Amino acid sequence: MTTVDGKTLLVIEVFLSNSRPHYLRAEGPETGVYVRLGSTTRLADRELIAELRRSVEGIAFDQLPMPELSAHDLDIDAAQAAFGSIRELDEQALLTLKLLTPYQKKLVPTKGGILLFGRQRTQHFSDAWIQCGRFFGTEKIDIFDHIDIDMPLPQAVDEVMLFLKKHAYRGADLSEVRRKDVWSIPLGILREMIINALVHSDYSQRGAPIRVVFLDDRIEVESMGILLPGLTIEEMKQGASRIRNPVIARVFKELGLIEQWGTGVRRIFAEAQELGLPEPKIEEIALRLRFTVYLAKPHRIPANTRKGRSEEQAEITTQQVTQQITQQVRKLLAVCVGEASRAELMKATGLKDRVTFARNYLEPALAGAFIEMTQPDSPTSPTQKYRLTARGKSVLEGGA
Q1: Do both 393 and 262 map to the same domain?
Q2: Residue of 65, 195, 251, 275 with fewest CB within 10 Å of its CB?
Q3: pLDDT tens profile 352-373
Q4: Residue 4 lies in a domain
Q5: What is the C-alpha separation between 256 and 248, in angstroms, rounded?
Q6: Using CA atoms, how far apart are residues 112 and 293, in angstroms rounded to an integer?
Q7: What is the domain extent for residue 114?
């Protein structure tokens, strides 16, 4: 019993049932399960019913074995490249990380292992990729630029950030280029949102990939799956967390992409408040979770870029360029001779950690248009190479 505004209320707390999911007897256990989404009630599909059952049994989807596959279906080289010197991925490490699991006297990959480092990821999980789009205006109608990212999940974080940075850089006022930070979007918040989507997406669902939408006034990150039973949006904002994919979460934590479980969402809201941004929004929409961050001011695409990059944006003097780039980018430009692959550039710069190379060398060089892809329409192509742009060459010729 409690009293609110002089009125006595009876408060009833209903705990999670160990017999869930419950269903309407007349409709049966396969077609009679309903879930609550905001102020609406929705019929649960087969995949959601299966997840509700797994949550009672304490089994996560990404921990399940894939008995039809073998250890050779894991791209161990890609996994080792992601971990770099953090740890050697021998058989025991793969078992500890649950990328492999014993099944009927043999080792097979887990669903999480394939989602993270599978050779044919989208063959087994058709929606385990990321769709990024930059739209004109504030409605998702007229698209300006888009890419599809299909690569190991840890590596996908940097690729999404590269896409966002490319368009954030284009939106920066030329008078701001001399400043160290020209980004007009909150990169720290967006990185947390992307990681949260990759780690917590319900990969058992089918229908759409993870989507990252860049609009003039906001950026939305949308992933499959509603909140797990017993977790509310308000609790998420306070730092409560339930790990939907413990295999993926464990790998992200070991790679330093997650600092501490359960702190990411709280950090997003705290950083938005520090930056003076409107409060981010979390919504459950049609069995998907949408995370929206609002920009401090409109980030419009110049009208003359509808068919190409704005000439005004491209007119940055050599002096401005050389003041903007870091020592890491200078080092990368110096070894970028002709057309070179990512592996060749990493070797030339003496780096073994792909994440460090992408974050500190490749990303800023691409975002600043100092280098360019030889296949810009296929950014994840295995034959992708990179070359200096006229801007990059001007930096080297200037000796700055």
Answers
A1: no
A2: 275
A3: 877 778 877 888 888 778 899 9
A4: no
A5: 12
A6: 28
A7: 61-124
Give the span between the Cα atoms of 343 and 340, in whole angstroms. 8
Tell me, yes or no, whether 261 and 349 share the same domain: no
For the entire predicted model, the pTM comes to 0.66
One-letter identity of residue 370:
F
Residues 120 and 202 both lie in one domain: no
Residue 3 tokens read as 């009293």
Residue 43 has pLDDT above 90, yes or no: no
**Helix and strand totals (H; E) in the chain:** 17, 14
pLDDT band at residue 118 using 50, 70 and 90 as cut-offs: very high
8: helix, strand or coil: strand
Give the pLDDT mean for 49-75.
Answer: 85
* Nearest-angstrom CA–CA distance, 302 and 167: 11
Average pLDDT score over residue span 121-147: 90
Give the helix ranges, DSSP H, for 72-180.
76-83, 91-96, 111-117, 121-124, 153-170
- 3-class SS at 397? helix
Distance CA 22, CA 36 (A): 13
**Does residue 267 lie within any of the structural domains?**
yes
CB 211 within 8 A of CB 222: yes
Residue 100 scores a pLDDT above 60: yes
Per the prediction, the chain carries an average pLDDT of 82
Contact status, residue 271 vs residue 264, Cβ threshold 8 Å? no
